[in-house]
Amino acid sequence: MNRRGGFTLVELLVALFITAILFAIGYGALNQALKNRDSVQRQQDRLVALQRTMRTLVQDFTQTAPRPIRDELGANMLPALQSSTSNSVLVTLTRGGWSNPAGIQRPSLQRVRYVFADGALVRQAYPVLDAAIDVQPRSRTLIDRVKAVTLRYYDGQSWRPEWPPASGNINNLTPAQLPRWRPLAVEATIELEDWGKVTRIIEVAW
After folding, report:
1. Roughly how many angstroms between the first and final C-alpha of the chain, as a whole number?
2. Is residue 30 part of a domain?
3. HSE-up of 142 (CA within 13 Å, CB side)?
4. Where residue 93 sits, what CATH number does that domain have?
5. Which residue has the higher pLDDT, 33 or 55?
6. Which of 28, 83, 95, 113 is the most exposed place for a label (fewest CB within 10 A)?
7. How many structural domains comprise the chain?
8. Sign of CA dihedral 142, 143, 149, 152
């Protein structure tokens, strides 16, 4: 008897089984590639955030201006750069070079404050230079997943954890000079949850 050409049921099952294995291998490789791409993208975004944070710190500290400000009551002068250990405020400073592309009537100096709160480093910028009770700063989160932020200040002789320092060159300054006194350099250390400690020494322009 003549038999018609074709595949048996066993051959079809074997072919389907081999096809399923190939699809599984291909899906696993594709899934791993997508995971790798997402991981690389997250690391890249993290690196960009860290670079942007350090660039912002460098710009602010480098352009620190010797311009003290008046307090909220207008009676006392606050230093041009003043560290703080109370609450979550790290440092407050007056910086120059405030860009004004729209040509708004305002000074080129800006009062900036850095805050460490809820695991994030936040930059706050005030729309006016001298302190005012009813003026609120504009906040911008620079980087999150931060464990600690440490700032140290170099006065020409040694590194100090606060500014203005309680002793040292401060004894050679008059009361009028003290609010305008700035450090020669600032050491900024950011400890991240995923990348550990990152330190940058920033020279303050004089």
Report:
1. 105
2. no
3. 22
4. 3.10.610.10
5. 55
6. 28
7. 1
8. negative
Token pair of 10 as six digits: 């066993």
Residues across the chain: 206
| Contact indicator for 45, 143 with CB cutoff of 8 Å | no
Q: Is residue 78 part of a domain?
A: yes
Residue 185 has pLDDT above 60, yes or no: yes
Contact between 67 and 73 (Cβ < 8 Å): no
CB atoms within 10 A of CB 160: 18
Q: Distance between CA 145 and CA 141 in Å, rounded? A: 11
Instruction: Decide: residue 131, CB within 10 A, 0-12 exposed, 13-18 middle, 19+ buried.
Output: middle
Confidence of residue 151 (pLDDT cuts 50, 70, 90): very high
Concatenated DSSP letters for 75-137? SSEEPSEEE--STTEEEEEEE-----TT--SS-S-EEEEEEEETTEEEEEE-SSSS--TT--P
Sequence letter at residue 63 = Q
> What was the pLDDT predicted at 131?
74
CB atoms within 10 A of CB 102: 6
**pLDDT grade, residue 63 (50/70/90)?**
very high
Asked, for residue 155, whether it belongs to a domain, the answer is yes
Q: Please write the tens of the pLDDT for every residue from 65-97.
A: 998 988 777 667 889 999 987 779 999 999 998
Residue 33 lies in a domain: no
Token pair recorded at residue 52: 């942007």
- Residue identified by tokens 């599984």 is 24
Domain span holding position 100? 58-203
